Amino acid sequence: MTFAEYLVAWAQLHGTQSPKGLVRVWLRIAFFLSTPLTKFNPNLITAFGPVLMGAAIFFASSPNRNYFLASIIVLVVGLVDSFDGIVAVRTSKTSSWGAFLDGIVDRLIDVGIGILLIVLGAPVELAVLAILIALIHEYMRAKASGIGYREVGVITPAEKPTRIALGVMFLFAAGLLPEKVIQLANIATLVWICLGLISFAMLLRVYRKQLKK
Q: Which domains are assigned to the chain?
């Protein structure tokens, strides 16, 4: 499958037009990097995500507090999260079970990022609130899809790649400034919550407008 053919399949799966700008650039990079993984079952790639997240939590909470390594692992989690879908499309192995498994794993990763913030020192209450907002965000999309709305609607500032990026950036910052790790964890959690609330309002507005038609 060529990259142009993949873009057509991607647009059909996401109920939108062919991606442009940074999304297209990212998909091209991910398409290239995923090539060696086309030998594997995409569901196996999906299931590897929580394993990596568990490793990141372990290194961030171990006595040596290896934040840099944890940051790199979370970055890999983000890459793997993109690769499974690309491999499924490229190898014609897309399935309802694969989509279901991917959704479950995505939510486990969201919870894992929240646990990482708690490990770094964020208040449990705030981290749990951030996780709940992310879960509601994804439930809104799933519910809209379940009642027949197939389009993306709107790309919010709190999509899954943003949540993963927060984990990567603040873990890396914690490695640079270990004496300020608690403050960094608090900032990351508050940023996540603020972006989540903004995104909630954006989705609510779009879905209210579209689903009333």
A: 3-211 (1.20.120.1760)
